[in-house]
């Protein structure tokens, strides 16, 4: 056996969590599977993880090197250091980040056949990190977060770093493709996936893994390992998780595996065999109620559909244990060709026993499943074996014999899997059987026999009886497993060496036929006792996980050992004690443990942690950001203000030189992002008025285009060191703003939008924002200098690294956006409609399921016709409907004639038409109609501004259509409440649906009726085939137009009438009804008609639908912005063409050669431009010059407009760096004498042109004669070679942040060009050999209009480690000057009353006229929660799944707090 120390790699994984005295936290990881060390930085403000993959920056050769770098060679003190063996998870929960690490491990199975060590966590630690972000959290949340960290991890969780162990051994899948059913830290590990370090967090399983060595003749002959995986699909504790749940899984569901192998010296093949079984509660809907008074819990079986989902449960088993098609002879001689599932039911079945009701239903459930024929390839067999009764009547020995009798046939038929591990793949073709190999192992597995099907044990809880029975079942298999491996357990044979060989021809499974005494006499007992020990520990662990206490009745497992009798005596007392313990746990702790488990798995977070965001924001103002312009401080040694951006200086009080009018910070962000929040740290000295009063925010991609996004935001006065978060909305286009102002003329007072934001003026999103200008205005009264503290900018960045590398979440996003674009193309080409209206955003996530037939109907509704009809002949129309059944032919023919019409309406026109239809009968719109109209607008993708414009054009004041104002205030809150519970129910149902699909083929959705089923304006009841007619009364005018006889007919589950689609309520109504009925079903089966559904529920569905559409609109805007950002970096065509063009030539190698072991300093997204760059139409975007080499089309390149003879690129480097040169990659068209540029380069640190210094000027034309390969188009077939390039080396490395490159072409070609003597000669060392016979030709652009062009620009050199803390001491001395007794211009306004009105907390503060003049107030401790969940999910994609989201709505649309201020004038009473 190999040493466990080296198992799986060259070294053991080491994790060091370092907290510096600045309270910054670094995770330093050296994985066993790698040779280097990675550093992950936890952002101290938002908690987001950072890893840039830069050698010498966050990648190091050794752990010591990394630690020295972080602690600056021990100059900065670390506050605490935690040494760990593995990372188990990380998550940010509001203002707290939690890092879970394993500090002690035990090697439970040190060396699996083929390698890999299974470690059980024996000690773990949650590291709590308080974040700077001021997120208010309610007490309940804080308590829940605390409870999450109290979840028991130690001793009950295990992992393997190098092999997949979520599936039966040996897994057919690689490590990083685990079976989700058994992964317990999927949610907790997401943060590492997001930064591309998924290997740095292990895949955690719950349950038990342990091994024992055994031998018959005093020497080690075999190893047996027991692995028990607990399913996470129905997590929870005894009385809360029983029977089936909506994920089609049962409580306490465990897969067990008994692996036996013969250890060999390395290099020898390792033979092994495996036996798998399953245990869990009965798969149907049942439960038990615990009453403190009664001795036993009362068992009940659900009245409604108790076997719902049972078939899906067995399907999952059948899928997992079906080995019929793997091309290997099954172990069994099962002629039927089915997958057997044998259920061994150990419940009491006597008269009057509470469990007998379960036994009956179990039987019935299987009959029911058989009758539906849902499991054609599975044979389910049920064996009843009343364990307790048998023991009482016949004693233990006979009970065991009886069990063996029942198990014999199924065990033999299902069989075991057998094979061996071969160390080399050399003879792989010679092996017969199934071969399994992947990158995780060096050799391969060859399986010659496979287990097909499974035995499943159950008692009531899948605990004590289950553990005992499965042990005696597994024991029989164990003897057979040993025999097949040539390990002798037979007493007679073992004592006689000469007959050893004889055992191989011995009868298979012979122990099944033995009596208990025979078995005990003939088998060597020590290995059996070893096995029993494993089962004893496993039983205790499963019992503890489920009930919080150890297993009972487990003495029977020791029946073969000497102390069996003693154990029995002892265990009676033990059982009583455990029973009491369980009852206490069940009654008191269960619900809290249930919640813990759900949070650990990331389930129901919207309930447990409603204010927590799914993904923390980035802080691009940290690390490599800087101020473009210095700002002058009173402290002459100050660092130009850069320290204002540094977290290391968070206690800094920066003081302006004199009383300044304004202070302006030009912040250049470290990476492009959409800016969402500004975080200020209040900083002042003696007088709190020195801190600015208001701030303006401008943002832009570069200095040339800056938009004002926030004006005059007031900064409250608060104590020194307070963090204030100011949300930043996106820029609003002037046009929208203009429209809005005009439209709002009549309604100067906006209404609070309790239902949804009707005004909805939403800002633009720009993921390429790079420059943020903050303008601070001091209080007018002050004449003292202005003070500032740390300034942080938070935003959402796109996963650029993944996007360029085509992997991880970035790849998902890329593909998604690509699809949008493809759809957009097909959409516009198909319909040919006005692209301005049906632009890109229209097609993103088409609103719910708009199947084409229904769309056709919608388009049919060509408004003009209806309007003209309704205006001119309303009477005819109404009569038409009244007699519609009699005139069916007529209506049909009308319908056809309308279908022939090609819809040609724009969105606005269509919207107006709808408005006119709705107002045709009654001039005033009601609440429901107003909502319907809004739905129509959102489906048409009209912005609120467009809507208001349209309405104003026909003389309607948009405010009169605001649903928020059309509803009784008393109804408002109940409606909001109903909509909120819909949102929660919908999300719960979706979560279950997604989890329920794990291990199964997805169900076909019957999507005729969706969650809301909101019919569009003009849709009506289909008529005679519907018995409900819920919709024809309100929309008389148009119902006939859309009636189709082919519509599906449903049966209302409440009144049992036949009902058409239009007259059905959405599926959400069923969830609400179930909830009120107290059912725990979260499914959407059945329909309910609108007449059986309360109006308030229908209104809630409509409201929820509006919220969904608003959110979708915002989503599609975000996606359009993403698409735009992509196209600005890699070019428009590249997005759709990426897959074809992506050419993975050895980019790394090429880069290495180009950089000459230096780093690329200006690569996007870190590097960017300071100014906009003029670009020819049809050229690649300017940012493509800085994009990674592998991105973009091979043939594309950047060009300046032909009219410009000169282009100046001001490149901002990713870091302050020592730059040694610039490399220009030649465009594929090559250079000619007319377009070869003169290149002049300057460097500087700040934006002022005067401060830059020139480092050289080079003329490329003079090169062309000596290097003819630079001329003319690139030859094809040169991929993989170093691209053509020119290197401009600096004489000495220059330390700078900005590089100015001026490319000039001479419009008049002059023949006399020479190098100035001051300039460096070019270096051609790196040139590729020139191809033979190349012709120096004119470049790709036409000779008549040469232009400036290039493929890429690389700036090379080494980043400089920035030392922002250098003025720390000096700043401290200033602090002394500041620190006098604070004079605060504030007084506390007492809260007079605090009351709960409905669900809202109302605080009342009364300010009496006699109180001092007050300019504002701040509510301390106010926790304004914007819940995660604002509406039900709109697709099968889980919007709360961190892997599927880039943009979170709460950041895109900041929360609004409405404060009502009333001034009461009390009249003096005379
Ligand atoms: Zn109907
Ligand atoms: Zn009904």
Automatic annotation (TrEMBL):
Residues 148-548 form the SAC domain. It comes from the Eukaryota. GO terms for molecular function: phosphatase activity. This is SAC domain-containing protein. It comes from Deinandra increscens subsp. villosa.
């Amino acid at each position: 056996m190999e040493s466990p120390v080296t198992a799986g790699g060259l070294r053991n994984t080491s994790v060091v969590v370092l907290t510096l005295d600045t309270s910054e936290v670094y995770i330093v990881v050296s994985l066993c599977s790698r040779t280097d060390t990675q550093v992950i930085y936890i952002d101290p403000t938002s908690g987001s993880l950072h890893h840039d993959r830069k050698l010498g920056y966050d990648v190091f050769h050794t752990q010591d090197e990394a630690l020295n770098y972080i602690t600056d060679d021990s100059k900065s003190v670390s506050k605490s250091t935690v040494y760990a063996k593995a990372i188990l998870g990380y998550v940010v929960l509001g203002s707290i980040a939690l890092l879970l690490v394993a500090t002690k491990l035990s090697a439970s199975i040190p060396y699996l056949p083929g390698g890999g060590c299974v470690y059980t966590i024996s000690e773990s630690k949650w590291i709590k990190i308080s974040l700077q972000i001021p997120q208010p959290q309610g007490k309940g949340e804080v308590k829940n977060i605390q409870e999450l960290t109290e979840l028991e991890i130690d001793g009950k969780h295990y992992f393997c770093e190098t092999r997949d162990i979520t599936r039966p051994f040996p897994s057919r899948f690689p490590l990083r493709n685990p079976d989700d059913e058994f992964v317990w830290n999927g949610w907790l590990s997401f943060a590492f996936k997001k930064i591309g370090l998924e290997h740095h967090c292990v895949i955690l399983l719950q349950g038990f893994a342990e091994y024992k060595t055994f031998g018959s003749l005093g020497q080690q002959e075999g190893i047996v390992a027991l692995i028990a995986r607990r399913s996470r699909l129905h997590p929870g504790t005894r009385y809360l998780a029983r029977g089936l749940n909506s994920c089609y899984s049962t409580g306490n569901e465990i897969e067990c595996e008994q692996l036996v192998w013969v250890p060999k010296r390395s290099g020898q093949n390792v033979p092994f065999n495996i036996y798998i079984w399953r245990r869990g509660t009965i798969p149907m809907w049942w439960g038990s109620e615990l009453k403190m008074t009664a001795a036993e819990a009362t068992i009940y079986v659900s009245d409604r559909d108790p076997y719902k989902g049972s078939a899906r449960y067995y399907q999952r088993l059948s899928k997992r244990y079906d080995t019929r098609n793997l091309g290997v002879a099954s172990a069994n001689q099962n002629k039927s060709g089915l997958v057997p599932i044998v259920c061994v039911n150990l419940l009491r079945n006597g008269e009057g026993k509470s469990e007998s009701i379960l036994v009956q239903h179990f039987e019935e459930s299987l009959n029911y499943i058989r009758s539906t024929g849902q499991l054609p390839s599975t044979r389910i067999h049920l064996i009843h074996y009343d364990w307790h009764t048998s023991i009482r009547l016949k004693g233990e020995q006979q009970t065991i014999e009886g069990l063996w009798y029942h198990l014999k046939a199924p065990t033999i038929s299902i069989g075991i899997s057998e094979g061996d591990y071969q160390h080399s793949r050399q003879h792989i073709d010679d092996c017969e059987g199934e071969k399994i190999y992947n990158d995780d192992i060096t050799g391969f597995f060859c399986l010659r026999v496979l287990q097909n099907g499974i035995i499943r044990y159950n008692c009531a809880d899948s605990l004590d009886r289950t553990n005992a029975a499965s042990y005696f079942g597994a024991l029989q298999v164990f003897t057979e497993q040993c025999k097949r491996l040539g390990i002798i357990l037979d007493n007679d044979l073992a004592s006689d060496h000469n007959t050893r060989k004889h055992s191989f021809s011995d009868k298979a499974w012979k122990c099944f036929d033995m009596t208990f005494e025979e078995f005990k006499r003939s088998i060597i007992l020590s290995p059996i006792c070893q096995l029993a020990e494993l089962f004893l520990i496993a039983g205790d662990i499963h019992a503890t996980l489920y009930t919080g206490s150890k297993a009972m009745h487990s003495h029977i497992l020791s029946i073969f050992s000497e102390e069996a009798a003693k154990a029995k005596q002892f265990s009676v007392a033990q059982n009583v004690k455990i029973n009491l313990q369980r009852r206490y746990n069940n009654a008191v702790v269960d619900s809290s443990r249930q919640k813990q488990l759900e949070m650990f798995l990331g389930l129901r977070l919207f309930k447990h942690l409603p204010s927590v965001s799914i993904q923390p924001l980035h802080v691009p103002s940290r690390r490599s950001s800087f101020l473009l312009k210095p700002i002058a401080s009173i402290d002459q040694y100050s660092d130009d203000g850069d320290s204002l951006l540094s977290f290391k200086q968070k206690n800094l009080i920066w003081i302006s030189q004199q009383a300044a009018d304004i202070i302006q910070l030009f912040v250049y962000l470290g990476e492009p992002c959409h800016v969402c929040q500004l975080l200020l740290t209040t900083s002042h000295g003696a007088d709190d008025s020195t801190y600015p009063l208001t701030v303006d925010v401008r943002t832009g991609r570069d200095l040339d285009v800056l938009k004002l996004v926030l004006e005059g935001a007031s900064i409250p006065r608060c104590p020194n060191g307070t963090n204030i978060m100011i949300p930043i909305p996106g820029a609003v286009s002037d046009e929208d703003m203009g429209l809005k102002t005009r439209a709002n003329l009549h309604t100067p007072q906006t209404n609070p939008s309790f239902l949804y934001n009707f005004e909805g003026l939403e800002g633009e999103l720009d993921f390429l924002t790079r420059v943020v200008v903050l303008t601070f205005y001091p209080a007018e009264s002050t004449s003292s200098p202005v003070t500032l503290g740390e300034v942080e900018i938070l935003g959402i960045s796109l996963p650029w690294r993944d996007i360029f590398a085509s992997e991880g979440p970035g790849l998902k996003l890329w593909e998604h956006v690509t699809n949008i674009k493809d759809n957009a193309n097909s959409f516009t080409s198909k319909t040919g409609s006005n692209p301005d209206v049906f632009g890109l955003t229209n097609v993103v996530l088409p609103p719910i399921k708009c199947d084409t037939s229904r769309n056709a109907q919608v388009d049919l509704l060509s408004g003009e016709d209806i309007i003209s009809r309704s205006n001119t002949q309303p009477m005819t129309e109404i009569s038409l409907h009244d007699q519609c059944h009699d005139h069916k032919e007529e209506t049909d023919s009308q319908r056809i004639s309308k279908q022939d019409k090609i819809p040609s309406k724009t969105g606005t026109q269509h919207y107006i038409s709808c408005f006119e239809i709705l107002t045709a009968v009654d001039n005033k719109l009601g609440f429901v109609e107003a909502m319907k109209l809004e739905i129509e607008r959102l489906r048409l993708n009209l912005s609120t501004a467009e809507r208001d414009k349209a309405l104003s054009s026909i003389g309607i004041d948009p405010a009169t259509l605001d649903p928020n104002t059309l509803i009784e205030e008393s109804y408002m809150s109940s409606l909001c409440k109903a909509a909120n519970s819909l949102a929660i129910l919908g999300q719960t149902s979706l979560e279950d649906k997604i989890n329920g699909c794990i291990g199964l083929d997805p169900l076909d959705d019957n999507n005729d009726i969706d969650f809301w089923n909101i019919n569009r304006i003009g849709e009506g009841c289909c008529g005679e085939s519907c018995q409900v007619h819920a919709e024809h009364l309100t929309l008389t005018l148009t119902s006939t137009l859309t009636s189709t006889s082919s519509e599906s007919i449903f049966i209302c589950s409440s009144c049992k009438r036949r009902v058409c689609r239009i007259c059905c309520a959405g599926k959400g109504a069923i969830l609400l009804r179930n909830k009120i009925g107290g059912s725990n079903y979260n499914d959407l089966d059945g329909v309910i008609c609108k007449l059986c559904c309360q109006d308030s529920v229908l209104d809630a569905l409509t409201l929820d639908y509006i919220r969904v559409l608003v959110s979708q609109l915002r989503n599609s805007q975000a996606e359009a912005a993403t698409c735009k950002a992509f196209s600005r970096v890699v070019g428009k065509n590249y997005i759709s063409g990426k897959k074809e063009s992506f050419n993975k030539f050895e980019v790394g190698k090429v880069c290495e050669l180009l950089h000459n072991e230096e780093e690329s300093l200006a690569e996007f997204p870190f590097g960017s431009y300071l100014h906009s760059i003029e670009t020819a139409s049809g050229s690649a975007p300017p940012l493509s010059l800085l994009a990674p080499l592998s991105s973009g089309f091979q043939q594309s390149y950047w060009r300046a407009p032909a009219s410009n003879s000169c282009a100046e690129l001001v490149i901002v480097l990713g870091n302050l760096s020592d730059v040694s040169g610039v490399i220009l990659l030649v465009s594929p068209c090559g250079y000619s004498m007319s377009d070869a540029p003169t290149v002049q380069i300057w460097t500087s640190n700040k934006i002022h042109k005067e401060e830059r210094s020139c480092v050289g000027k080079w003329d490329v034309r003079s090169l062309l004669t000596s290097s003819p390969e630079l001329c003319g188009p690139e030859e094809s077939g040169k991929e993989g070679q170093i691209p053509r390039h020119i290197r401009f080396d600096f004489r000495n490395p220059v330390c700078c942040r900005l590089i100015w490159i001026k490319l000039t072409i001479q419009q008049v070609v002059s023949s006399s060009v020479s190098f100035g003597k001051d300039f460096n000669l070019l270096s051609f060392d790196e040139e590729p050999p020139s191809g033979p016979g190349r012709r120096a030709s004119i470049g790709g652009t036409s000779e008549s209009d040469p232009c400036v062009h290039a493929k890429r620009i690389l700036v090379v050199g080494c980043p400089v480690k920035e030392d922002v803390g250098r003025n720390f001491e000096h700043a401290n001395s200033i602090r002394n000057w500041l620190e006098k007794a604070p004079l605060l211009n504030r007084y506390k306004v007492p809260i007079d009353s605090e009351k709960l009105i409905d669900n809202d907390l109302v605080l009342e503060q009364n300010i009496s006229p006699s109180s001092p003049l007050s300019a504002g107030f701040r509510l301390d401790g106010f926790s304004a929660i914007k819940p995660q969940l604002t509406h039900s999910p709109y697709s099968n994609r889980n919007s709360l799944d961190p892997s599927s989201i880039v943009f979170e709505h709460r950041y895109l649309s900041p929360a609004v707090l409405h404060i009502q201020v009333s001034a009461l004038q009390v009249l003096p009473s005379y």
